[in-house]
Write a structure and sequence with these properties.
With 196 residues, this protein is an all-alpha fold. It starts with a helix and ends in an 11-residue tail after the last helix. The protein contains 11 helices and no strands.
Length: 196
């Protein structure tokens, strides 16, 4: 008899494959059962609904990505760390296209954010906490630009998101993306005071 964790993993892996092939709409209970080999009843028992499968999948994939990129953030100079973060991010997305499709496709799927938005945002915030904390510390030291909280995701990570949404992670020049990413985060140039 399979363990509950194995059953849940099989369903989530199947859901990631379905999202990668046909978007969130491809994730139906029947398709999940066929793909994962888990009965409809068992899917409902472990998750309760299709929406909950997508929610758990989204949160899990995002947590994996954050764990991967947070290893790039250490005591090196900020620019080196952020350039390493870009490489880790793009490498992860290229190596996990199904999971990347979940991160970039599922939040827009009706139901998941509409019905579980606060839960998803809280889980994503917890997963991103090490990255957010490193950035807060470096901002306080003046090593990176101060970016308002509302802009952290759309502005600060904009170049990475757009490259990944367009499916270019494995084929783009990571240096070009790293240059754009650093340009957003680089501290503003200070103008010397005029001589008296």
């Amino acid at each position: 008899m399979p363990r509950s964790s194995d059953t849940r993993r099989a369903v989530l892996d199947g859901a990631a494959e379905l999202v990668a092939q046909g978007g969130p709409a491809a994730v139906t209970i029947a398709a999940l059962s066929s793909r994962s080999g888990v009965s409809n009843g068992s899917i409902y028992h472990h998750f309760g609904s299709r929406e909950e499968v997508l929610r758990k999948l989204l949160v899990g994939c995002f947590a994996e990505l954050m764990a991967c990129i947070s290893t790039s953030l250490d005591d090196r100079p900020a620019e080196q760390c952020l350039r390493s973060l870009v490489g880790a991010y793009l490498d992860w997305v290229a190596a996990h296209p199904g999971k990347a499709a979940v991160i970039y496709g599922v939040p827009l799927a009706a139901g998941v954010m509409a019905n579980h938005g606060n839960d998803v945002l809280a889980a994503k915030g917890a997963a991103a906490a090490p990255v957010s904390e490193w950035m807060r510390e470096r901002r306080a030291l003046g090593e990176i630009r101060s970016i308002p909280d509302w802009a952290a995701d759309p502005v600060a990570f904009g170049p990475l998101h757009e490259v990944c949404r367009r499916g270019l992670a494995g084929s783009c020049d990571p240096e070009v993306v790293a240059d754009a990413f650093w340009a957003i985060h680089a501290p503003p140039l200070t103008t010397p005071a005029p001589a008296a």
